[in-house]
Write the structure tokens for this entry.
Amino acid sequence: MARVSVLGLASVAAFLFVLAGCGDGSPGGAASSAKATGDSGKKRITVALLPKRKGVPYFTSCAEGAQEAAKELGDVELIYDGPTDGSATASADMIDRWVQKKVDVIAVSPNNPDVLTAAMKKARDKGLHVISWDADATPESREFFVNQATAQNIGYALVDTMAKDIGGEGEVAIISATAAAANQNEWMKHMKERLAEKYPKIQLIDTKYPGEDQNEALKMAQGFISDRPNLKGIFGISSMAFPAAAKAVRDAGKSGKIMVTGLSTPNDMKEFVKDGTVKSVILWNTRDLGYLTVYAARALARGELKPGATVFKAGRLGEKQIAGDNILLGDILVFTKENIDKYDF
């Protein structure tokens, strides 16, 4: 992953983001870049960016990167909108509305591919370009997947981090998102693979699914803590689950005794890293993910990104590898007490 000055980027991106009104407004609201025609004089490209759930810091940060790319490109009209409750049905309805508006590209982070496949395929049948980002959809429903990191790399990193934190043995549990979340399910497949191959003394005792509800995730973590006296670690593998699990451990006075690791933004986890409840936070640069998604969407609409391509040039990120139909953002990041203050997203 390109190592840019994240603090500097944050200031610029946040400023542009506010100007564009790309904050967390009403579910039906839209945020767009300036209306001026790009320097090329070509027709502007309208890109609709759909998160799993609007209003959470992870996706807000992605949207800031997307807005930065739209401003930089100059010929992209960006719409950022999504359900505030994580409803897959609401997401499908939003895709249908964008089909009626005849946007050029719809970029979807699917919270439930089974529900969204029909709407995404309908959009493609109507001649719209459709890509997935953050989480993948069924291959027939999209043209490319903008992938933050391989599922294997994420799953292995989660397990290796936990194994180091708990000394390579003990009971651990997972708090995911929904049971239908394709990306979390892929990560867990590789987590279990890594546990079996490398850490036979670590026992995975249970997996819980709170959806995108942080309060429910908190209750589930509290249940693990009270019901499992030998529990050594909790994985929180969504941006909602991780801070909830960390809070449950800290509130129970178990910081340092029950380790917590997972995936969330550094800003959401700083307090837990600094007080010792969490040693490591695993993620990727979320702004870069939104930025790359808009670059890919625009290139697809312009005919500059086609099946069979092996590399893709994306602005300040430089050349990104394409594996099959996956556009790869790059390496994951690990945030610790030593480096977490360097990041602001």
About this structure: DSSP finds ten helices and 14 strands in the chain. Residues 32 and 78 are 5 Å apart (CA to CA). The mean pLDDT is 89. The longest strand covers residues 202-208.
